[in-house]
Amino acid sequence: MMESLFYGTGIFCFLVVFGIFIFAPTKGQTRIWLWSALKILFFGALFSSWFTENIVLKWILIEASTLFGSLLISSSGTEKSFQVGWKFLLINSYGLGIAFLGLVILLFTSKPVDSLDFSALQLGLEGQTGLLIKTGLLLTIYGYSAKLGLVPNHYWVGDTYAESPSQISSLIASFVPVSVALALRPLVQLEREINHSLINSANGLLLIGILTILYSTWILHRRDDIRRIAAKVALFHTGMLAIFIWLDVNNNVFYFLLASTLIVKVIIFVSMGILRMDSGKRMIAQIVDLNSINQKSFYGYFFAIIIAFVFPLSPVFILDMEMIKISLDRNLIWLFSFPLMGLIFFFIALNKILPIIRVRNRDFYDSQKTLLSIRLGFLIISIVVGLLIGTFGMYELVTGGFENV
Fold this sequence. Notes:
Layout: H1 2-23, H2 32-49, H3 55-73, H4 79-109, H5 118-124, H6 131-148, H7 155-163, H8 166-194, H9 201-220, H10 226-247, H11 251-279, H12 284-288, E1 292-293, H13 295-307, H14 315-329, H15 337-353, E2 360-361, H16 366-399
Parallel strand pairs: 1-2
């Protein structure tokens, strides 16, 4: 059930992003059909990677999304967008190159296998614990973590999410992390089976996940840009994704986590795009100095951040409750710190954006009314779907459907 929920959420999120691009594009967007084709290719590559166990094909599909993503980032046609697109391409390709080297080492070390499926590789490595296997896993996990956007390879995340059109940001922020998480999870599980030492790649993923959460929280208080704030929200949740991968939660929790990641990031970036278009500004101080804005655009962004952290029926809140339950079941009391860090992040972000509430309300400008109304409609639908997912998660949590193993 949860797996189907994840796939359905993925299709829904793509249709929301694609629909906004087709029916409510920004003024600077030209050659709509060309960029639409690239969006479909980007989504198709990552969506296809969800269904294959072939470790090489999965890597190829994720790498293909890097090329398509870099082209989409540069769709604005500005010098800044080209620079950001190159940074995205270089850092992601660097990480995936390391991951591919790790896969080659694992295949070289393995006994002869009938296929390139992960299950076949796992059988080929059965009973082996040598240095080559550990090195292969280290390189693969570290390489994929760069694509995930974790510290210390997080530098592409801020610029990509903050400098791209909001539809591109939401597409990349939503689909790249969940696709990489699907590739990482079996590798982390294999590492746990092979390497029982405290110093291993799985614990390394935990460490850089924690560092990513701490970094995003620390840097947030220095940001007064609604785009950068949205980027830091996405980065924080990527760090939390790494924590859940390390926890090796059961399939129900894992697929609910992926569905939550998709819908919450779409809500964040769609709402940010509406506020950015309506105000014509991205710096909070500049928005506060305006004579008026449409307060619907502010409350959309405001409610999106609430959903991303503390709203009781949001999927993120359910996952925080599940993490607390896991901490009690496994006697890992230190896990309590992560929901608390989410609260700290939320209150910092809230303190940043609340001054906008004082700006006088007005209607959308006539020149933007149709576009922003369409975007607002997509946002409302996304929020409703997100809350329905959260409600379903609450039911599963209360009735034991998330029961941990």
